[in-house]
Amino acid sequence: MSITIEQKSALIKQHQSSKNDTGSVNVQCAILTTRINNLIQHFKIHKKDHHSRRGLILLVEKRRRLLKYLKQKNINEYATLIQKLNIRK
């Protein structure tokens, strides 16, 4: 359900804007999206895991708030990130 250190560092390298960027909105959304996708796969097997479902809802809400902030600050970067992460259809 969780992501490994290697996966997380690969996501950071892929979405960072500068060499020392590890906590920007883009990086945080990419990490949250990966965690959300892993949890969705978990729920296909464990349908009655309601405790983890609550965690999924919290992750989705946190990503939604970050995306809302990014949309207010830079609409072009928001559109690029949405397309990269394949969040909206």
Automatic annotation (TrEMBL):
Matches recorded under InterPro entries: Ribosomal_uS15, Ribosomal_uS15_bac-type, uS15_NS1_RNA-bd_sf
Record bears the keyword RNA-binding: yes
Matching SUPFAM superfamilies: S15/NS1 RNA-binding domain
Keyword list, A-Z: Ribonucleoprotein, Ribosomal protein, RNA-binding, rRNA-binding
Pfam families: Ribosomal_S15
The keyword Ribosomal protein is assigned to this record: yes
Gene3D superfamilies assigned: 6.10.250.3130, S15/NS1, RNA-binding (1.10.287.10)
Family to which this protein belongs: Belongs to the universal ribosomal protein uS15 family.
Matching PANTHER family: RIBOSOMAL PROTEIN S15, BACTERIAL AND ORGANELLAR, SMALL RIBOSOMAL SUBUNIT PROTEIN US15M
Quaternary structure, from the entry: Part of the 30S ribosomal subunit. Forms a bridge to the 50S subunit in the 70S ribosome, contacting the 23S rRNA.
Task of the protein: One of the primary rRNA binding proteins, it binds directly to 16S rRNA where it helps nucleate assembly of the platform of the 30S subunit by binding and bridging several RNA helices of the 16S rRNA.
The protein's name: Small ribosomal subunit protein uS15
Taxonomic lineage from the root: Bacteria, Pseudomonadati, Pseudomonadota, Alphaproteobacteria, Rickettsiales
Gene: rpsO
